[in-house]
Amino acid sequence: MSNTTSLRIVSLLPSATEIIHCLGLTYALVGRSHECDYPPSVKDLPVCTEATVNSKNNSGQIDKDVQTLLQQALSIYQIKLDVLEKLQPTHIITQDQCDVCAVNFAEVEKAIASLTKSHPQVISLQPNLLQEVWQDIEKVAQTLGASAQSALNKIQARINAIAEKIKPLENLPTVVALEWTEPLMGGGNWVPELIEIAGGKSVLGVKGEHSTYLSWEILTEADPDAIVIMPCGFDLERTEKESQVLIQHPNWPNLKAVKNGKVFIVDGNAYFNRPGPRLVDSAEILAEILHPQLFDFGYRGTSWNPFF
């Protein structure tokens, strides 16, 4: 293993910052993205990115702004080159998975090419499935000369503990995860896997594929047993606010999940939207929501709530 004491890491991705933390390398972080907020200590680090979209707008307007920028092939995020130059990182961790989630890979490459004081190594993450997230943790560890085994063993043990209790269950509930409320989007990538681990049947989300727009007709036709609302980038309070638009739709009161009080809001920003170690927390949250008779991990009230 290489000497990790000389590392100077800049993370341009909240999930990467959490991977660094779970590997015990938080001390080596010298810079972060404007969205990195966990562990709380990283908030004191220099910020290396900024958003060009106003995240205070409502969901409908944010979606329009994002689509406009993407159509014009413009980046939703910008890198603060002057900050990066001062930090002289040895490694920069970024992603090549979703231009809406973080600085795109092309922007990072362009920024690095213009640095004069350092020549950092880029670690680019591109997970679509849970297994790929765990592989990314391994990849980051190997590149930085650390070990991921202990962290991955703990994650697997927690997943196994849920699976053990789920095994005897029959007639598992159908679940729709909503990753955006206006317009509607179904949760893809690793979200269907999390639902399955937690003892649900995922509908309207395709495992390993990007989240897709949904129509109200499709949602009404699916009529799931439970709906979990997890808008990308929003905490619990913001999710509750942005979910009010759903109530105004004429189809809303006719949904089975609504009639049975099985609609829930979660902190998607901290958990479900971040492909890092806290996806195992996300599985526990879903298990607690879907099978309260079997699970009580203590997340209710801080990480999820019923939406009523």
Low-confidence stretches: none
Alpha carbon gap, first and last residue: 52 Å
What is the CATH third-level topology name of the largest domain?
Answer: Rossmann fold
CATH fourth-tier homologous superfamily of the largest domain: Nitrogenase molybdenum iron protein domain
**Largest sheet, described in full?**
7 strands, mixed
Q: Overall 3D geometry?
A: globular
Structural class: alpha/beta
Count of separate DSSP helical elements:
12
The percent range for helix content is 25-40%
Tally of separate domains: 2
SSE order: EHEEHEHEHEHHEEHEEHEHHHEHE
Quantity of strands, as a count? 13
Write down the CATH class of the largest domain: Alpha Beta
Multimerization status: single chain
**Percentage beta strand:** 15-25%
Walk me through the structure.
- It is a single chain.
- The protein is α/β, with parallel strands linked by helices and 308 residues long.
- It is built from twelve helices and 13 strands.
- The chain folds into two domains: 4-147, 3-Layer(aba) Sandwich (Rossmann fold); 170-306, Rossmann fold.
- The chain has helices at 14-22, 59-71, 81-87, 105-113, 130-144, 149-166, 191-197, 216-222, 236-242, 244-247, 256-259, 279-290, and strands spanning 9-11, 29-32, 49-51, 77-79, 91-95, 121-125, 174-181, 184-186, 201-202, 212-213, 226-229, 263-266, 304-306.
- Strands 7, 8, 9, 10, 11, 12 and 13 form a seven-stranded mixed sheet that branches.
- Helix 4 links the parallel strand 5 (91-95) and strand 6.
- The termini are far apart.
